[in-house]
Amino acid sequence: MPGEISGQENQMAETLLEIRNQLLELSARKNDIHNYDRQMELLQEFVTKVSGMKEVYFDREALEKELASGYCSVKGRLKAGEEEKVHLEKQIQEDDLTQEEVAKILCVKQATYSRYESGAINVPVDILIKLASLYQTSVDYLLGLTNNPKSK
Length: 152
Prior knowledge:
Blueprint: H1 7-94, H2 99-106, H3 110-118, H4 125-134, H5 139-143
Helix pairs in contact: 2-3
């Protein structure tokens, strides 16, 4: 019968409707998968950034330790430099030599010797030895390692 839908056609229509419903479900799952993939990308970026921050944190700890060590070292050198300056000034006051005379004996410029005396620059070892000899004292005394000017 021409106006009637046969059983085969009815079954075909149901199959097509079922395929359409499955395609709609697959399309929704595709969107879910895309959202999941994007979330995974964002999580990976987060992990990378956290790892970088972790490195910075541990580098910061190491840098803080190095800075503290450097600070203590510089502080110790400044203290030693001050003691050296005090002892050198004391020796100079006890003798009646001018800066120019001492500079000439040490074979350095007067300005350089003045900077040694003021503590602006460290006195090189060879100059310390000459100063100790000149003032008949020990290098240890000039460096402030002892308070006994005559210790050798």
